[in-house]
């Protein structure tokens, strides 16, 4: 059975304290691994798509990487505005268009 | 550029009733997907539509249905509501079929009493 697992469930960081979020996946035929950010009361906001092992993408203080079994979202020198729930999701080759989401990591960055 | 618009934003229904939720995608987007979000189950895929055709369906009972119109607007319907249907229902639109880059709306918060 396809599974997407995120850890930790919650993360509290001081401003400037870098950290990494983990997303491990067990799916048959990965087409793409997606990262989204969700703020309270809003829908998820797209961050990155990774398609193959070894791929990396960056956006401001965020960097996403992908291996054959997991993906990492690195947050470098976070600011309070980076506080959000970060969701990863997998799309498989036999369920094109269906995203299977992990439970998310709630990140709080304090000044 | 207008985002994805979902209506209504909040609604309260009682068990046994039915509900229809509406989603207007970003102009030019032809793909619409629906997800259910609950604290216990997280985000779960309901269905995806592209050019008025349902391309993919999640593991939900037949009480959950949807459709897409020729202008790409989409509706989802839940009949015979149960308490467990209380959730945030999210619609997302994309330029092409498949997950690709999806833009989500703010959701419709359904409470079933």
Any overview of this molecule?
The complex is a heterodimer of chains A (111) and B (113). By secondary structure, chain A is an all-beta fold. Chain A contains no helices and eleven strands. Chain A has strands at residues 3-7, 10-14, 19-26, 30-38, 45-50, 56-59, 62-66, 70-75, 84-92, 100-101, 105-110. The radius of gyration of chain A is 13 Å and the shape is globular. Chain A starts with a strand and ends with a strand. The mean pLDDT of chain A is 96. Chain B is an all-beta fold. Helices cover 0% and strands 53% of the residues of chain B. Chain B is built from no helices and eleven strands. Chain B has strands at residues 5-7, 10-13, 19-24, 31-38, 42-50, 53-57, 64-68, 74-78, 87-94, 103-104, 108-112. In chain B, strands 2, 4, 5, 6, 9, 10 and 11 form a seven-stranded mixed beta sheet that branches. In chain B, a hairpin with a 3-residue loop joins β4 and β5. Chain B is globular. The mean pLDDT of chain B is 95. The chains are: A mainly beta (111), B mainly beta (113). Chains A and B meet through β4, β5, β9 and β10 of A and β4, β5 and β10 of B.
What are the defining features of this structure?
heterodimer; A: 111 residues; mainly beta; six-stranded mixed β-sheet; five-stranded antiparallel β-sheet; globular; B: 113 residues; seven-stranded mixed β-sheet; four-stranded antiparallel β-sheet; 0% helix; 53% strand
The number of E-state strands of chain B comes to 11
- The number of helical segments of chain B is 0
Largest interface: A-B, 24 and 26 residues
Structural class of chain B: mainly beta
How far from one another are the termini of chain B?
A: 37 Å
| Percent range of helical residues of chain A | under 10%
Low-confidence segments of chain B, ≥5 residues, pLDDT <50? none
Order of helices and strands of chain B: EEEEEEEEEEE
What percent of residues of chain B are in strands?
over 45%
Shape of chain A: globular
Which quaternary structure do these chains form? heterodimer
Average pLDDT figure of chain B: 95
Mean of all residue-level pLDDT scores of chain A: 96
**Count of DSSP H/I helices of chain A:** 0
Low-confidence stretches of chain A: none
